[in-house]
Amino acid sequence: MLNAHQWLEKIHQLPLPEKVRVMNVCGGHERAITMAGLRSVLPTQIELIPGPGCPVCICPEEDLYQAIQIALRESVTVVAFGDMLRVPVNVPRRDIRTLEQAKARGADIRPIASPIEAVEIASTEPDRDVVFFAAGFETTTAPVAAMIAQGVPANLSVLMSGRLTWPAVAMLLESDEAEFDALVAPGHVATVMGPEEWEFVVKRHRLPAAVAGFTPTSLLAATYSVLRQKLEDNPFLDNCYPELVRPGGNARAKEFLNQVLKVEDAKWRGIGMIPASGFALRKQYLNCDARLRYPDYVDESRRYIGQMPKGCECASVVLGKIYPNQCKVFGTACTPANPVGPCMVSDEGACRIWWSAGLRNRAA
Fold it and tell me: Is the Cβ–Cβ distance between 353 and 30 less than 8 Å?
């Protein structure tokens, strides 16, 4: 097995064209690429483009607003994965803009790391309703589905905001907005759903594709694979994460997803509606649907159709149209201490990753 240095040498030996654009879908990939400084050691012809793999970044603004309003107006405990607490919604700065701010105003809001914690909180406090704001991609949505399938306390409901990863890439490729020549697919999603989900990239669009893990070695192996596929005009789906990614994925996890959830058209923040890209509870599990248990506090007059805050270009970053430091507010109005948009909040957001890696100057 080759190490990272050997893969890098093999990449440098390739007769590359003037430019090859490789999109990495996953926020975890972008973090590994940036923190390892891979862009600085790869041939200059290779452009690595961050893609739409940050669930915090694309979570619909109206879902987050709904969670905030439930926490403020109902006598409940709201739990959510930690990154969601700092994502701002589109309201004036004098208003409560985040779950974190709502917590500071007295709302009972608690960060959790897994669905098990949501069940434990509901079980230990049976006289208090608990709402689990469940945002995420397949990797985190599968455990939520398992939690529901196995039975939850009567006082626990779920505000489902799960999304599938591949439809956003499919939307890009089927539009005129795809600005990449090859794809590095997310290893953790492929571990759950199977690598086969990404075969459409090769079969329908004849683009090279490879599934990668999260080490520099795996990422460089995947990069070498797609570059060689491109040079040989022989696109195929390569698995460069065989340690965990198996054909068919995790059968048990997929069983829970299919049992509990259905797939429907869904909004992505800043992007709009993407067909067949969202998870929703099936009819037999609507008894734990927070949207039915609590009023809809999202006033029609303030629906933003998923747009980002004013001045924020997170949507363009998510879609690979610009790099984080090309956003007008990157590093000026928007920093991790004072995020304007969601891409500066999450550890999977490209803007936060670039800032944390020291890439703090806004491009001219």
Answer: yes
pLDDT tens per residue, the chain (364 residues)?
899 999 999 999 999 999 999 999 999 999 999 999 999 999 999 999 999 999 999 999 999 999 999 999 999 999 999 999 999 998 888 999 999 999 999 999 999 999 999 999 999 999 999 999 999 999 999 999 999 999 999 999 999 999 999 999 999 999 876 789 999 999 999 999 999 999 999 999 999 999 999 999 999 999 999 999 999 999 999 999 999 999 999 999 999 999 999 999 999 999 999 999 999 999 999 999 999 999 888 777 666 556 788 889 999 999 999 999 999 999 999 999 999 999 999 999 999 999 999 887 766 5
Do 144 and 254 belong together in one domain? yes
Domain assignment present for 41: yes
**Residue span of the structural domain in which 118 resides:** 60-162+250-297
E-strand spans in the chain? 20-26, 46-53, 76-81, 108-112, 129-136, 156-162, 182-186, 209-212, 237-240, 261-268, 272-281
Helices 138-149 and 251-260 sit at what angle, rounded to 10 degrees? 70
pTM value is 0.94
Are 271 and 127 members of one domain?
Answer: yes
| Residue 146: CATH number of its domain | 3.40.50.11740
Same-domain pairing of 64 and 154: yes
